[in-house]
Amino acid sequence: MTRLAGVPEGIVDRVSALIDEHREPLVALSHALHADPELGGEEVRAAQRVSALLSGAGFEREPTPADLPTAFCFRKGDAPMVVAICVEYDALPGMGHACGHNVNAAAAVGAALALGPLAETLDVSVKVLGTPAEETFGGKASLIDSGHFDDVALAMMAHASNHDAVGGRSLALCRWDVTFTGAPAHAAAAPDRGVNALDALVIAQTAIALARQQLPPGSVVSTITTEGGSAVNVIPERARAAFEMRSPSIDGLRVIQRRVRACLEAGALATGCTMALTRVGNDFADLRQDTSLATSYRHAMAVRGRTVEMSDAAVASTDMGNVSHVVPAIHPLLGYEVGDATPHTAAFADHGTSPSADAAILDGAFGLALAAARAALDPAERARLTRDAADRAGEGERR
User: Fold this and answer.
1) Which residues pair with residue 152 across a beta bridge?
2) DSSP state string for 37-54
3) Reported pTM
């Protein structure tokens, strides 16, 4: 085994051996999730499969919020330095695991199974959080609100991709559903008695289109009309639309939200309609990966023969961004062969159980486990991470 600076060879060898020991159940987990995809918030069987593996390995279950029935929390060890490993397992409608969350889950569980037996040696607690609905409402943000990250010193997971990279950012994200309500009337016989909800939506969309020039750089506002009337000869009583907003930062997202809301209110004011806004899921913050942990992951993956790019490119959006704002975290991309396929396509899902994907599970588990081990064994890193965690735990108690 190639030497990894800062980690005794015995630890490196032991992590590698533990991952090899669990190769069969980890690959089986990935394949089972892939064959049985479940949507966000409905991942009952996926959570059961992961929970069975962790329970069988001696992890003890802890409570999770009742309103997150497919979340879970398992722990091994009782040291104050808590390593959180986030497990994703939701799929996409109509195309299954087209984002590779079956690979994400298996790699995360593999890291937990490698760290668990070393918890006492490394003087850490290993906390495994089942984080549902990354593709929809963002279970990680809900688990932050419930205090499940208050005692955490560092958090990690790996995400399926067509290449290896760490350090990248993500875009802050939110989604709103909006309904304008007016009054129906015959469009020819009594149009003056109607209040046109579709007009309100058109005005709002036009105002948003004009506002785009003044939004912060990198802003994205997407919208679709989901209801715009039922008959051409009836003034539309109701109009509905979905709005998605993204920004390079959570602060930029707040600016976009204020401007878009003003445009929506303008549509209602101009037409005399009422406007109802529903936030869909949690707002996602931008991802900020911890440089030290990212470097450790990169060095660990080199031991497995992988070259991991250090990148600050922004890629899509994830609720791991919310975690990274409260806990030092990494969210590396874990590459395997997918041909020309891109995420969120059926073609990408087709590669999710290939030999290359199976190998990525084991390599990713190794990289995550060794990054955590290196942080635990470095006195300066340990002091930094545990000090911040103690501060957060104190804030959580005061709440």
Assistant:
1) 82
2) --BTT--HHHHHHHHHHH
3) 0.93
